[in-house]
Amino acid sequence: MAVTIHDVAREAGVSVSTVSRALSGARRVGPELVERVHEAARRVGYRHNAVARALRAQRTGVIGMVVPEISNPFFPAIVEAVERTLQESDRELMLCDSRRSPDVERRRIQALLGRQVDGLLISPVDSQASTKVLHEAMRHTAVVQMDRYADQTRLDWVGVDDESGMALVVQHVRDHGAERVALVSAERNSSSGRDRLDALRRATTTAGLAESVELLGEFSIDWGAAAARELVSRGDLPDAVVCGNDEIAVGVIRELRRHGLAVPDDVLVTGFDDTPIATYIEPALTTIRQPREAIATEAVRLLDARLADTELPVRKLALQPELVVRGSTQPGSEGSAS
Amino acid sequence: MAVTIHDVAREAGVSVSTVSRALSGARRVGPELVERVHEAARRVGYRHNAVARALRAQRTGVIGMVVPEISNPFFPAIVEAVERTLQESDRELMLCDSRRSPDVERRRIQALLGRQVDGLLISPVDSQASTKVLHEAMRHTAVVQMDRYADQTRLDWVGVDDESGMALVVQHVRDHGAERVALVSAERNSSSGRDRLDALRRATTTAGLAESVELLGEFSIDWGAAAARELVSRGDLPDAVVCGNDEIAVGVIRELRRHGLAVPDDVLVTGFDDTPIATYIEPALTTIRQPREAIATEAVRLLDARLADTELPVRKLALQPELVVRGSTQPGSEGSAS
DNA sequence: TCGCCACGGGCAAACGTTTGCCAAGTTTTG
DNA sequence: CAAAACTTGGCAAACGTTTGCCCGTGGCGA
Predict the structure, then answer these.
(1) Beta strands, E only, B219-335
(2) Which of A82, B31, B131, B179 could, after both became Cys, cross-link B150 (CB 3.0–4.6 A)?
(3) Could you say which architecture CATH assigns to the domain A162-290+323-329?
């Protein structure tokens, strides 16, 4: 069943090396021979065996990628962009989901290394627990962190500039009259959770605003809803609720409305990431748009640079985000869209 | 840098075959030797080379999967479940996005075949254009279609029973007093589009309802919104709008509301799939829940069966869906949740 | 005319495993 | 106690490529 380069060689009446070179163009081969080889390959139905090639060439053309949760809508967009970028250089993506567990993450990384991936793109689950396995991984292949990162690693990273993002948000709500803002975000155990919290604190201070309260849970709708209940029950509502990502904001908005509060008329609400959800809900969400395409292309670029030279200095690329203003901070303009 | 089985053999003072057997357990090896080999492997930091193993064993332990669009929230849930299932048998998933293009799809499949995947899971982009490449693929490996399928293929398939789903929906809206229903769905060029349309027609006939109008576009929010505008401009609103998937329903609801119509009080709206979106919006969406976990496990099971015996008769598995009733068809109960 | 070089084809080794076969040692059996 | 059977370790071939090296041919300058 398996038709190999040997079959092609026999069919074309040449040696296997000639076939290999004719097909790959690694060295000059007579034009009429090239034609004959291609013709023979077509005739016997030859298909390249990437496994054998990988073993011999010591490179697989596969990049491994590990994300904390593929069903979090932020990641499919990144994955899509990475895949598109890789395709330009004829490489494939092997995607793994670490299910937000450092233990699963470790196993997935080990498996990818065993498969001899040419590089590893990862959004680490936990800023502490992921460190060790990443250190091991970088001894075997090029590793670039995306979006999130692990502490104490000398590893490249590309993501969004949380500092700028939060500054944009704070400035925006202040311009709309907010004086007291609340933060609803995730615990400090992921780098995004921690950095966004710190960034918000600095931004409110700089803007001269009062931060009324910080509620930290996880990046989910349910947590957003729970936090909103907490805010309402305290009876001391802020002017604006700044959320750590879009999903939290969705939960917050839904729960506030359920308690008879109007968004944006009673409270402004903002998200972070600009996932598709942001336009699904009503009012549409004012949020920070991550430059996803750029994150993906830069990640691959960093990976290739590291591949070319292991000794390169570590680079951390914080890309500039963009404020997207929608209904959730625009009183009166009832949910005007995307 | 690369530490191989030979290094382990030298360290342990045995032959490579003994190391291989001790590590894989392929044959009885003396217990003290097993121990010594493991110890040596640990000491030199040995890691299995999956590429070499794949070449020799003629199986890679990788399953290829091609989906039309990973950012369509229906697919990440499937991918997650498939990955989890595969992990039980120590296999990896190689995921590709065909970007809703038959041409990209063809290239992705070719690449996966070249990588010697042990099997192929695919949700074909187009019921016509995808047929040819699938036929070629099945000559090289086991292929199972998921969710969507291509015509004229003798290929296994597992998905949801659209017939039952639409029957459940129609029965439900009729029970809530609807007499005239409209369908907003996608063109007939994907199998889901076609089958859901046909199923709805039969269901309305059976239920003795009048189907006022069919609007066919694509499975997207934008199309849902456009269709809703069309419905409104015709001025002859149906009692219920049945949508081909959840995203269309989201677009329909948003646009209806924008025209001052209340859902569910003026018009009932239903979705299909029960993606996370269904609970994001207000009112939450009454929809058909696909048994995603079951689809994933059955797909892998079919694949393994086919792998074991190529001559097996073709099987088409239509799994039973479930109606999930939420606010969009429950007048008065203002958006009670999931 | 001779020698040198460029060109293009082929041989065979290597990539890191697994595994069929053989042989030596050990146990069971009649 | 000898023969048969079983156990266990090692040798070497194979998986399908790519590529370093060698070699024959023909063109060209001296």
Answers:
(1) 240-243, 268-270, 287-289, 316-319, 322-324
(2) B131
(3) 3-Layer(aba) Sandwich (3.40)
